[in-house]
Amino acid sequence: MIEVKNLTKRYGQVLAVDRISFEVAKGSIVGFLGPNGAGKSTTLKIMTCYLPATSGKVTVGGLDVLTQSLEVRRKIGYMPEAVPLYPEMRVREYLMFRAALRDVPPRDRKAAVSRVARQCWLSEPEDMMRRRLGELSRGYKQRVGLADVLLHNPEVLVLDEPTIGLDPAQIRAMRELITSLRGSHTVILSSHILAEVEQTCDHLVIISGGRLAARGTPQELRRQVAGPTHLLAEVRGGPEAEVVAAVKALPKVKSVTADGRDGSGESWLRLKVAGEEGSDLRSELFRLVAQKGWQLRELTREVSTLEDFFVQITYKQNVGQ
Fold first, then answer.
1. Pick from 22, 29, 1, 3: nearest CA to 187
2. Bigger pLDDT: 54 or 275?
3. Is residue 319 one of the residues assigned to a domain?
4. pLDDT digit string (tens) for 36-62?
5. At 292, which CATH number?
């Protein structure tokens, strides 16, 4: 649905985007990630016809964003990080105005506004649609911005930090809304909330320093995190030195750290066990505890997160510049 080929953007001597290439399949939800200043917003603005590229090409549904920009804009709903609103207009008035600009037929505009008001939680309280935009909180302004981009039911949604200003319940509702669009819409989501991206997106594209750093599914990227796996365990029944030595003697164990007793008076020993990369030592540790007649209160495997990968890959990219 979207194809980016060797995209480059310069602002004078500053190279903001450096020959990045990726594709977005139709009906998928793709997370577009990167640290501040990585070139995310610049790329999204080029993709949505707000900025011209210095070189390279972007197509949306086979249409070139530079030479066929009007046709591309009909296919796209773009919500920027800072939603531009007219503060003196009322919510319903603004959405009706935007529906006209988006070529929604006059007979369908009221229904379209009612639909997006329900989708974006603008129907309550009852007077919300009559309030002036300048009087709204940051969260409600974000809702109005999202409602705006859904008015013409576009094939592609480009959402730049859509959850800024939303409370936890609204963030969850936003996630559910975006997830419900899978299949019927193609969604590109830029966000710094990696947990939300991981739960929502099918694929991820990460850029750093204007260059493509990584891409793949969240599961594929998590598996690329280098370093040993870790177990956290709480054991009782033997002297600290004996417990640590026995655990350290297990195959594929690289190190064992004892964090001391838990202070509850029950003498539980907290252990952090580092194993070789890709290993899972839970079964071996459980069998050891059973053989020794010790007690086991906790046995948890620390799993690499998307945040671990993000920090690691962007750090490597920046060091290599």
1. 29
2. 54
3. no
4. 888 888 999 999 999 999 999 999 999
5. 3.30.70.1340
Please state the domain count of the chain.
Answer: 2
Q: For residue 314, is it within any domain?
A: no
- For 232-267, the pLDDT digits (tens) are 999 998 888 999 999 999 999 999 999 766 555 568
pLDDT of 115 higher than 80 = yes
Same domain? For 240 and 214 the reply is: no
Range of the domain at 162: 2-223
Q: How far apart, in Å, are the Cα atoms of 184 and each of 26, 29, 62, 90?
A: 9, 11, 18, 30
**Order of strands, edge to edge, in the sheet holding 76-79?**
76-79, 156-160, 186-190, 29-33, 203-208, 211-216
